[in-house]
Design a protein that fits this description.
Length: 229
């Protein structure tokens, strides 16, 4: 049973639950594709490039679409499943039921501070004509403020690039350490882009040892699969 980020009759925004790995979930979704369905993956590099998955990228004989190096994907192709991989980094889900456009992004601290949430919404607007007020956004399970401790240079980058996020940064236990609320900063980026329908998962992947992989907790190589279908 996966985590469900938001429910809409026509869409599922999910996040696999440990011990199932991203690879296992990917195979399960691939096997469950309907006729002509496709599943897309990306090679995540902590950047802000968002790729549009379009008809010309599809090969008739391949069910898997490789979007290459990027951290976000958007599509309007029916039956397309978009996926990303996570172990603490925040998954972002977007769906516009009016235009039937969906997107997924990967927001670690670099993607968050460089506003991949805004880039993804902007792509939905400029390429697909989506209106922010029609977009549903989901901020999925990821590392919470309780466990995302960073040093001064990271906190300073947030203060410099996103000056409004100061209330989402707390002083840590030790001098020069800070706790940052990545989920709330991503939610605010969505609000600033005009999106009002935002669901934020309360699940901290570090805290939820039984159900989540966490790179920060134990350096795991295992990942969750975030998907929208
Ligand atoms: Zn936590």
């Amino acid at each position: 049973m996966d985590f469900r980020i938001f429910n809409d009759d026509s869409i599922t925004a999910g996040f696999s639950r440990a011990p199932q790995t991203a690879e296992e979930k990917f195979e399960e979704l691939k096997c469950g594709l309907s006729d002509g369905g496709r599943i897309a993956l990306m090679h995540q590099v902590h950047g802000t490039k968002v790729v549009c998955i379009t008809e010309d990228m599809l090969k008739p004989w391949e069910m898997v679409v490789d979007a290459g190096e990027c951290d976000g994907m958007v599509t309007a192709i029916p039956g397309m499943v978009l996926t990303s991989r996570h172990a603490d980094c925040i998954p972002l889900y977007f769906y516009d039921p009016d235009k039937d456009v969906k997107a997924v992004s990967h927001a670690g601290w670099r993607g968050t501070v460089n506003a991949i949430a805004s880039v993804t919404i902007e792509t939905m607007k400029s390429v697909y004509g989506c209106r922010p007020e029609d977009i549903k956004a989901g901020i999925g399970p990821g590392i919470g403020r309780c466990h995302f401790e960073v040093s001064e240079d990271v906190a300073a980058e947030f203060r410099e690039k996103l000056p409004w996020c100061a209330p989402m940064i707390d002083k840590g236990q030790k001098p020069g350490k800070y706790y940052i609320d990545l989920k709330e900063i991503n939610a605010e980026l969505c609000r600033l882009a005009g999106v009002t329908d935002i669901t934020v998962s309360p699940v901290c992947t570090y805290c939820q040892e039984a159900e989540c992989f966490s790179y920060r907790r134990n350096g795991t190589k295992l990942r969750h699969l975030a998907y929208i279908k």
